[in-house]
């Protein structure tokens, strides 16, 4: 269950990272409200996952999910580069998350 909570926290981290872009420096009300809501949910789910998972593992996975999702959505939504090196680096983050999952009870 803790891993599902952690995955959800990572998804909401992606939401607030994208929200930061759409809020235009917190000058647009609805994107700002959505960003703050995603932050609250993300931190809440991370906190719940930390009841069971080790801090280092949980934090690394949380930020990794956020990084991967934000980078991929940056490519898809904002036309950021999708060159081989960038995609390989994203793959390394995925490998790190999988590795942490395999070695953490």
TrEMBL record:
Taxonomy, superkingdom: Bacteria
Keyword Transmembrane in record: yes
Pfam families cross-referenced by the UniProt entry: Multi_Drug_Res
Keywords: Cell membrane, Membrane, Transmembrane, Transmembrane helix, Transport
Transmembrane spans: 29-50, 57-78, 84-103
Membrane topology classification: Multi-pass membrane protein
Statement: the UniProt record of this protein carries the keyword Transmembrane: yes
Cell compartment(s), UniProt: Cell membrane
Protein family membership: Belongs to the drug/metabolite transporter (DMT) superfamily. Small multidrug resistance (SMR) (TC 2.A.7.1) family. Gdx/SugE subfamily.
Name by which UniProt lists this protein: Guanidinium exporter
Upper taxonomic lineage: Bacteria, Pseudomonadati, Pseudomonadota, Alphaproteobacteria, Hyphomicrobiales
């Amino acid at each position: 269950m803790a891993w599902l909570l952690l995955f959800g926290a990572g998804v909401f981290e992606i939401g607030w990272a994208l929200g930061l872009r759409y809020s235009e420096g917190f000058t647009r009300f609805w994107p700002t409200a959505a960003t703050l809501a995603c932050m609250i949910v993300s931190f809440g789910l991370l906190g719940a996952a930390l009841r069971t998972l080790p801090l280092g593992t949980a934090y690394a996975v949380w930020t990794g999910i956020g990084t991967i999702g934000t980078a991929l959505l940056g490519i898809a939504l904002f036309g950021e580069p999708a060159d081989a090196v960038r995609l390989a680096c994203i793959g390394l983050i995925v490998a790190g998350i999988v590795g942490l999952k395999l070695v953490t009870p």
